[in-house]
């Protein structure tokens, strides 16, 4: 893919995000969203991972570098949404989540530091599918319709990202 095309690829689903609101406080829901915020599979990890990949890729992957940076921006938007939802649900949007009764603080060891282009793309495809699946599962579990509709909307972005990474992987398979 050419670099000028990379800036035109849609990196988010076309429909607008719903309003950031909740029907009422719910600490259990806030804890669930805390995992999406700060776990090894959460948005904080995705943001850093995509920035890392953007930084380490070389000139032949300039188009992918551009797209990774733009996808990281979408993930930052998700992080912002989750933080606001957690606060509205009565939680504290710290960069940590609860594992059982133990807090787990986000750290750079939660990031996948693959450097090979095929490993990067394969991992990113699985991560994006997993994120979409997780958001959709939570949307069914959470009975707050405002939160559920937002999770379903964010899942659509993750599927867009999965498809973008799949396209890059196919392109690399053909060209090399």
UniProtKB/TrEMBL annotation:
Domain Ferritin/DPS intervals: 43-172
GO molecular function annotations of the record: ferric iron binding
InterPro entries: Ferritin-like, Ferritin-like_SF, Ferritin_DPS_dom
Name of this chain's protein: Manganese catalase family protein
Originating organism: Fumia xinanensis
Lineage, highest ranks first: Bacteria, Bacillati, Bacillota, Clostridia, Eubacteriales
């Amino acid at each position: 893919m050419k670099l000028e095309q990379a800036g035109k690829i849609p990196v988010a689903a076309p429909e607008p995000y719903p309003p950031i609101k909740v029907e009422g406080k719910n600490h259990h829901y806030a804890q669930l969203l805390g995992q999406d915020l700060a776990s090894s599979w959460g948005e904080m990890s995705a943001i850093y991972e995509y920035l890392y990949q953007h930084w380490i890729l070389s000139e032949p992957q300039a188009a992918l570098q551009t797209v990774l940076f733009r996808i990281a921006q979408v993930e930052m938007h998700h992080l912002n949404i989750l933080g606001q939802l957690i606060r509205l649900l009565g939680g504290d949007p710290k960069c940590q989540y609860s594992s059982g009764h133990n807090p787990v603080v986000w750290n750079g060891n939660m990031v996948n530091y693959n450097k090979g282009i095929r490993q990067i793309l394969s991992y990113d495809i699985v991560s994006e599918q997993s994120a979409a699946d997780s958001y959709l599962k939570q949307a069914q579990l959470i009975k707050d319709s405002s939160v559920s509709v937002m999770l379903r909307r964010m899942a659509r972005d993750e599927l867009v990202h999965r498809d973008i990474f799949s396209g890059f992987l196919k392109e690399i398979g053909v060209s090399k």
